[in-house]
Design a protein that fits this description.
1 helix; four-stranded antiparallel sheet; 7 strands; alpha+beta; three-stranded antiparallel sheet
Length: 140
């Protein structure tokens, strides 16, 4: 019984050491394969009152939802659940104020962000959405 308990103790210590080593590897592993790997905002010359598509690329986990924020405030329609067949999720974003907007996508504590400069709405209001550069002499 003495030899048996010594073997059991050694086996227990081996399993404990293996568990500690595995936990350490998980905690110090680099985040090279992050969940949200990219974020982009469609269009150009974004302006107040116009809708734009925000796309987040999901590199690893397609089961957990992706939350989108604009300067820390949830974007309407967020969070979005990815499709198992696609590596990206999208949401529509309509800025309500001019200036710098930090658009962020977060999934399971891993996030990516981009900064978008938003101009004031055009003299045409929402009718002017998508007309950027079409009538340069009328816009300023």
């Amino acid at each position: 019984m003495n030899a048996m308990s010594a073997r059991a103790r050694r086996a227990g210590m081996g399993l404990t050491a293996f568990g500690a080593a595995a936990a350490t590897m998980v905690l110090v592993a680099p985040q090279a394969s992050a969940w949200v790997s990219d974020i982009s905002v469609g269009g150009s010359n974004q302006q107040v009152g116009c809708a734009y598509t925000v796309t987040a690329t999901v590199a690893v986990d397609r089961l957990l939802s992706v939350s989108f924020t604009d300067n820390g405030t949830a974007i309407t329609g967020s969070p979005v659940t990815p499709s198992l067949l696609s590596n990206s999720v999208t949401i529509q974003w309509t800025p309500t104020t001019a200036g710098a907007h930090t658009i962020q996508a977060t999934q399971d504590f891993i996030s990516k962000s981009t900064v978008v400069q938003v101009a004031a709405s055009s003299a045409f209001g929402s009718v002017g959405c998508g007309l950027n550069g079409l009538f340069p002499s009328l816009s300023g």
